[in-house]
Amino acid sequence: MTRFVLMIVITFLFVIPATAQEKQEYNNMLTKGDQALVSRTLTVKVLNQKPVSNGHRSFSYGNTCFVEERANLTLLEPYGNEVLVLLGRTETEGTNSCPGNKKVAFLMKKETFAEMKELFINQEPIAALLKRHGIE
Fold first, then answer.
1. What is the C-alpha to C-alpha distance for residues 126 and 110, in angstroms, rounded to an integer?
2. The 3-state secondary structure of 5-52, one letter per residue
3. Which of 57, 99, 100, 110 is in Cβ range 3.0-4.6 Å of 26 for a Cys bridge?
4. What's the N-to-C CA distance of the chain in angstroms?
């Protein structure tokens, strides 16, 4: 019984503060205009009031669509435990894919955006280096 109580106390002392600290780190590292690269297909709920079309069908507020892997995202602003995100360039547009470059807005968890931001950051410097040397 004593070990069980000790385990619970340790959990509250170390694990829970670490989780709160991680959330604060996400808040500190995410700012308006940050970009991210989608690492896996996401299902999102469209927030746009006016319909946007991907050529196959239209999506508007409350509809769901897929954000395909390798799509670009831009953070518009934090919103509680989530962030308001704008979909940018996408490589594919299937029937249920969110339309790329049509300003599709949706919410996603801060942690998810932060992970995908790291992926974007790790790929962007190479493109910037090539461009600086006149290589497209």
1. 25
2. HHHHHHHHHHHHHHHHHHHHHHHHHCCCCCEEECCCCEEEECCCCCCE
3. 110
4. 65
Q: 21 and 85: one domain?
A: no
Q: Which residue has the tokens 């339309």?
A: 99
Determine contact, residues 71/90, Cβ cutoff 8 Å: yes
Domain count, the chain: 2
Q: Which pLDDT tens digit goes with each residue over 107-116? A: 999 999 999 9
Q: For 47-104, write each residue's pLDDT tens digit.
A: 999 999 988 899 999 999 999 888 899 999 999 999 999 998 777 667 789 988 778 9
Say what the pTM is: 0.69
Tell me which residue range forms the domain holding 7.
Answer: 1-30
> Is the Cβ–Cβ distance between 74 and 35 less than 8 Å?
yes
